[in-house]
Amino acid sequence: MKTKLWDLILEEIDDQVDPQTFTTWFDKTKQFSLVDHTLTIKAPTKFFADWLEQHYQSLLEETAYNLTEKNINIEFIGAPRNDHDSSEKLKKDLQAPQTTGLNPRYSFDRFIVGNNSHFAYSAAHAVSNKPGKIYNPLFIYGGVGLGKTHLMQAIGNHIFNNTRRKKLSYISSEDFTNQMIASIHNNNTINFRKKFRNYDVLMIDDIQFLAGKEGSQEEFFHTFNTLYNAKKQIILTSDRPPKEIQKLQDRLVSRFEWGLLADLKKPNYETKVAILLQKCNEENVSLDNDIIEFIADNCQDNIRQLEGSLIKILAFTSYKNIDPDNLTLDEIKDKLGDILIHKNKPITLESIQETVASYFKIGKNQIKENTRKKEIAFPRQIAMYLSTQFLSDISLKEIANHYNKKDHSTIIYAKKNIIKKMNKDENLKNQIHEITKDIQN
After folding, report:
1. Are residues 28 and 143 in the same domain?
2. What is the mean pLDDT of residues 262-281?
């Protein structure tokens, strides 16, 4: 059975919107038709269709382009409803507080265990069965796209599904900091502290971004102590072990090491094949073994990129109306080789642009738009800066031309500005460190 392009688009954006929003607006949509360059999506009501077009069309079309490397126009259709209260009900549903912040797709069943992840998986499974009683805190660390968030949320989903009385929260360290700042601004720090110190299970993703933020570290230190002393479970993830997180208070490093440190390494060849086979099973397609092995052998060791390569292939076949079950290895090499992530892939202006855009969740073409909006302009400066770092053989004028700038002075300014900000902002330095690793992978 051929996977539809819309289903692949939804898989890609699932991680970019919160679970409640995804359930509310996307669960009941389906692909109606794909004709030429127009993808028509059927929504349950006209209100749904109008909302999706207004709020998500740009993101969806950029995602479609990234999958197919074609400009796809996405249109929404929906039948009118007689229920005049539906709009207000949907608005209330959207504004309703999330129970956990967890994505239900992240489960232990969907996590492929290999030599690279067996220890971390076993520890996570043990914690999910005895929260607060074993391995507290659990500190999971590893590189980008290796499954840290998957394992953390799998713990939360297991606990939530089996012990509904437990109060859980999954949040990024950045959101923790933003909520703390908002509570100070609104003179509401008491409720902030009460909220985070009243959970049975607190999961914080990318804890390394607390580095250099003294106020956030102070607040989290006391939150940690309160939960730990009450035998409540704390689960943290990071791209590196605690001792390697610069500008993190020693007392926090010490506490993070009280429990168990579990690392995720890069998957070996056999694990990559197993991941691809599971993904094919989920998509209800059956690719030849030699195709699976070719993808596993030619893709980098980042699991997220590995799965992304398969999704791109399925999106390409859907767009071209090719049955993936009938693909041959020669067709993969001849027609789809350019969308696979190959070893030793050269770093170019285009690859840097695409990586930065993907990191900040904006379209790769948006980043070149002539706008001063911070959400576009700042990532563009980062892309310009990284271009000067990776591509020493390319002139500043060439970089300027690539980003539709009149002269190289814009590139010089961008470079100086990013360096200046990195010297003052440890969070930005960590972000650029992650982007750099993504570019090199």
Report:
1. no
2. 87
Statement to judge: residues 83 and 192 lie in one domain:
no
Query: What is d(CA 47, CA 94) in angstroms, rounded to the nearest whole number?
Result: 14
Q: Report the DSSP beta bridge partners of residue 263.
A: 141
Q: In which domain, by residue range, is 13 found?
A: 5-95
DSSP string, 181-203: HHHHHTT-HHHHHHHHTT-SEEE
CATH value at residue 435:
1.10.1750.10
- For the stretch 132-180, pLDDT in tens is 998 999 999 988 778 899 999 999 999 988 876 788 989 888 888 888 8
Report whether 224 contacts 258 (CB < 8 A). no
Query: Is 270 within a domain?
Result: no
Q: Are strands 38-43 and 168-172 parallel, antiparallel or unpaired?
A: unpaired
The predicted structure's pLDDT at residue 267: 86
Query: What is the structure's pLDDT at 154?
Result: 94
pLDDT digits (tens, 9 = 90+) for 216-268: 899 999 999 999 999 999 999 998 899 988 889 999 999 999 999 999 988 88
Give the span between the Cα atoms of 278 and 385, in whole angstroms: 39
The tokens describing 42, both together, are: 């059927």
Structure token digits, residue 235 = 């689960």
CB atoms within 10 A of CB 396: 18
Q: Residue 337 is which amino acid?
A: G
326 and 372 assigned to the same domain: no
Same domain, 144 and 253: yes
Whether residue 277 lies inside any domain: the answer is no
**Torsions phi, psi for 375 (to 5 deg):** -65, -15
Residue 18 belongs to domain with CATH number: 3.30.300.180
Average of per-residue pLDDT values in the chain: 83
Query: Which of 423, 413, 351 has the alpha carbon at shortest distance from 387?
Result: 351
Helices (H), 35-147: 46-68, 86-95, 118-129
What stretches of 200-323 show up as alpha helix (H) in DSSP?
214-229, 250-256, 269-283, 289-298, 303-319
Tell me the backbone φ, ψ of residue 373, rounded to 5 degrees. Answer: -60, 130
* 274 backbone dihedrals φ, ψ, rounded to 5°: -60, -40
Asked if the model's pLDDT at residue 335 lies above 70, the reply is no
- Domain total for the chain? 4
- Read off the pLDDT band of 313 (50, 70, 90): confident
For residue 266, which of 175, 148, 436 has the smallest C-alpha distance?
A: 148
- Distance of alpha carbon 116 from alpha carbon 124, whole angstroms: 14
pTM exceeding the 0.85 threshold for the entire prediction: no
Residue 420 forms part of a structural domain = yes
Higher pLDDT, 84 or 357: 357
Q: Which H or E run includes 233?
A: strand 233-238
Residue of 203, 195, 223 whose CA lies nearest to 127? 203
